[in-house]
Specification:
The protein is about 50% helix and about 10% strand. The chain is α/β, with parallel strands linked by helices. The N and C termini lie far apart (about 45 Å).
Length: about 300
């Protein structure tokens, strides 16, 4: 078994994030050379592990990590995607498409976070309960199949945001290769592009439960409405957006560079009509546009 005692604790995850911020800024100035060296060191360290499970959502970070693990370990690495009502069909298809294109080993498992009342309650620590369930299931799979370690795709930028799921990873002693290597988001995208990975410019993604205002119970029915609403918005040609649910109100965030189309009268009419059909009484476009973790603003005001 891999020595998991070398895994970063929650405190060291936070400290590593602070010390790597300036490194990432230098990488932008120096080009890809330093980023490539980080990648080489990371892959060399991955080769020291007997076998590895990777938590794989299909997003840019976990896709790059799954690719790197495949380079290091080949068939001794397995990318694992967790399926539940919080994971959209669109994201599942993206994950499967990436796996097929790159040849990585890939399997899906079922998680049961909706059986946990603490998750359904949707308080500020919801993400902790989700990741705790994910890593419980992955630990069981690792034990059953003889995998030495588990890894996930936290990067050096993620430590600057409110993400309680990192606490669950630390408690389960899950490896964080991207963070250990000091790789930031812009470096991961650049290295992914160099490697020919289709995910290099994939818009940021998160689970469907992250669209629901804290304190409102997350249910498969509500998440299904959000998923159908986002499918419609995607069908209008938008790339980076979120549909946030605040009770009867649907708040749509769209990247500022896509505002011109978003505020087109016919587009607004169609969007409002579709979202009302899904059960929302009010539909609004957020004037600040898309940004990650916007629901966390309500936590800071308390």
């Amino acid at each position: 078994m891999h020595d998991l005692t070398q895994n970063p604790t929650l405190k060291t995850i936070q400290e590593m994030g602070r010390t790597t911020q300036s490194d990432g800024d230098c990488a932008e100035l120096a080009g890809l050379d330093e980023s490539r060296r980080k990648q080489e060191r990371m892959i060399a360290e991955l080769r020291q592990i007997d076998s590895l499970l990777i938590a794989f959502s299909g997003g840019a970070d976990s896709a790059y990590l799954a690719w790197a693990a495949h380079q290091a370990l080949d068939k001794r690495a397995l990318a694992v995607t967790a399926l539940s009502a919080s994971f959209s069909e669109h994201d599942r298809e993206e994950a499967q498409r990436f796996a097929a294109a790159t040849g990585i080993r890939h399997e899906c498992i079922r998680t049961e976070e909706f059986a946990n009342p603490l998750y359904v309650a949707n308080q500020a620590d919801r993400c902790y309960h989700c990741k705790d369930e994910l890593f419980d299931k992955m630990e069981a799979l690792a034990s059953d199949r003889g995998f030495a370690a588990i890894a996930y795709g936290i990067n050096a930028d993620d430590t600057h945001e409110f993400r309680p799921g990192h606490r669950a990873a630390a408690e389960h002693r899950v490896l964080a290769p991207l963070l250990t290597a000091g790789l930031r988001k812009n470096e991961i995208r650049a290295l992914s592009r160099e490697a020919g990975l289709a995910t290099w410019d994939r818009p940021a993604a998160a689970c469907l439960s992250s669209r629901v205002a804290y304190g409102t119970a997350v249910t498969p029915e509500l998440l299904g409405r959000i998923e159908r609403g986002e499918d419609f918005i995607r069908g209008l040609g938008f790339r980076q957006f979120r549909l946030r649910a605040h009770g009867e109100l649907a708040r749509v965030e769209i990247a500022p560079e896509e505002f011109a189309r978003a505020f087109d009268a016919e587009t607004m009419r169609r969007m409002a009509a579709e979202l009302k059909q899904l059960g929302f009484t009010y539909v609004t476009l957020d004037l600040e546009g898309y940004r990650t973790g916007s629901l966390n603003a309500s936590l800071k005001s308390k």
